[in-house]
Design brief:
Distance between the termini of chain A: 14 Å
Largest sheet of chain B: 12 strands, mixed
Number of helices of chain A: 1
Order of helices and strands of chain B: EEEEEEEEEEEE
Radius of gyration of chain B: 15 Å
Structural class of chain B: mainly beta
Number of strands of chain A: 13
CATH class of the largest domain in chain A: Mainly Beta
Shape of chain A: globular
Strand order of the largest sheet of chain A: 1-13-3-9-10-11-6-7
Strand content of chain A: over 45%
Shape of chain B: globular
Number of domains of chain B: 1
Oligomer: heterodimer
Helix content of chain B: under 10%
Order of helices and strands of chain A: HEEEEEEEEEEEEE
Largest interface: A-B, 52 and 50 residues
Strand content of chain B: over 45%
CATH topology of the largest domain in chain A: Jelly Rolls
CATH architecture of the largest domain in chain A: Sandwich
Distance between the termini of chain B: 17 Å
Largest sheet of chain A: 8 strands, antiparallel
Structural class of chain A: mainly beta
């Protein structure tokens, strides 16, 4: 059954929906969180010249799929942005992460990047120090709050000279309740904006 | 209010070999987003496939599907896989055993528009020996109106748990 949306409240909607809700219906659905958008904002951080960034209120008990956006990653010196997870408040920094990516340079080669034992999952590509030389990424995170399942990611990353897409996993059945971003190659300080959303569920 | 609208949420609670998600594509939206997570079984099976369901409720199993994907393996070489005139789009989703599980995001374009082919692109991560990530494109080469889709495993391996959510991307003037 598709959910309906009334045109009266959304004047830009160009087509009619199949369901029309009464005021009572709307109030009831809204109280249950079933009315409205389906990409729900959780947190945003904008940082400048920092060594790392932590997001520790990710509502993992509310959402089983998260969307992380990284916008304008710019390291002080050439570096890459990596991600680790917090498990029940403790950051996992051991070489337990796995990933597999395809990468490509605009003016160079394409290739594979993979590991079954690294201390991070890769987020943003290598970028230099030019202030206009930045990279951005989106990353879906699955099953973070489920203590009986691995936590997976799938992401796509784009820089001024480089792209990468693929996925990763923290192959441990645990509750992931935080995200940690850092320079995974040289540890360079960086600037960026990170936004975290929950993908709505009933 | 975001422009992503939840249309359907289907939870798999018993062992099944296929799941039909019906009456989700309509004239209300042009682009749909399908998000799955936690689909699992007792074995590590590599992939789950998709067929579309037309407005009469029939699963389209004619050899009108093309697909191509890159299988990115953390423990081995990457592999290309492609097919033309197939009876399904292969490797759109995945599932694996209970702990390993999976996650995926798929976009479907113009399924309800009877004058257009139905296109899809997908990206997922799952675990079989080690993490596998797949990037996939596919098309149903029929100019007909599709209102739903079916997930199934070609080897008839049952899957027993997981959530499939379908969203529409709001249409603006």
């Amino acid at each position: 059954m598709p959910f309906g949306y009334t045109g009266q409240n959304q004047p830009n909607q160009t087509v009619s929906n199949s369901g029309v809700f009464s005021i009572t219906d709307v109030a009831e659905l809204q109280s249950q969180g079933k009315l409205g958008g389906s990409l729900e904002f959780i947190a945003e951080q904008t940082v400048s010249d920092v060594a790392n960034l932590s997001m520790t209120s990710i509502k993992e008990n509310v959402y089983d799929v998260h969307l992380l956006e990284v916008i304008g990653y710019n390291p002080v010196s050439s570096d890459r942005l990596g991600m680790q997870f917090f498990e029940s408040g403790t950051r996992e920094s051991a070489s337990v992460y796995q990933y597999a990516y395809q990468y490509g340079y605009y003016n160079g080669s394409f290739g594979e990047n993979k590991s079954t034992g690294d201390d991070h999952i890769k987020i943003c590509p290598d970028e230099g120090t030019d202030s206009t030389d930045t990279s951005s990424a989106y990353c879906y995170i699955y099953n973070a709050g489920n203590s009986s399942k691995y936590t997976f990611t799938s992401q796509q990353l784009l820089g001024t000279d480089f792209m990468r897409f693929g996925g990763g996993v923290l192959p441990q059945a645990s509750t992931v309740d935080g995200i940690y971003l850092f320079g995974d190659n040289t540890g360079s300080n960086f600037s960026l904006t990170a936004k975290l959303y929950g993908v709505k569920q009933i | 209010m975001s422009n992503l609208r939840l249309i359907n949420e289907t939870e798999i609670t018993s062992s099944v070999s296929s799941v039909d998600i019906t009456d989700v594509f309509s004239a209300d939206f042009d682009i749909y987003k399908i998000v799955t997570n936690g689909i699992e079984d007792t074995t590590d099976t590599p992939s789950l496939h998709i067929r579309f369901i037309n407005s009469s409720g029939s699963v389209i199993s004619a050899s009108n599907y093309d697909y191509a994907y890159l299988n990115m393996r953390s423990e081995g070489s990457f592999a290309e896989n492609r097919g033309t005139n197939q009876s399904y789009i292969r490797g759109v989703f995945s599932f694996s055993n209970a702990t390993h599980s999976q996650g995926s995001v798929t976009y479907i374009f113009n399924p309800y528009l009877a004058t257009s082919y139905t296109f899809g692109l997908s990206q997922f991560s799952s675990y079989a020996t080690a993490v596998r990530s797949i990037k996939n494109i596919g098309v149903l080469k029929q100019t007909a109106s599709m209102t739903g889709f079916q997930l199934f495993d070609i080897d008839n391996t049952d899957f027993s748990e997981g959530i499939i959510r379908t969203y529409g991307l709001r249409v603006d003037s």
